[in-house]
Amino acid sequence: MRLPFLGARLSLMIGALLVAAFVLCAALAPWLVSLVGYGPFDQVAPRSITPPTPPDALHLLGTDTLGRDLLSRLISGTRISLEAGLLAEAIALVLGTIVGAFAGYFGGRTDALLMRCAELVFAFPEPLLALAIIAAVPDPETAPFLRHLPHPSIGMVFLVLGFLGWAKIARLVRGEVLRIRAREFAQAAQALGANGARVVMRHLLPNALGPLIVAATLGIGGNILMEAWLSFLGVGARPPLPSWGTMVTEGQAYILSKPWVCIAPGMAILVVVLGFNLLGDGIRDLLDPRRRVIAA
Question: pLDDT tens digits, residue range 144-160?
Answer without folding.
Answer: 788 888 888 888 999 99
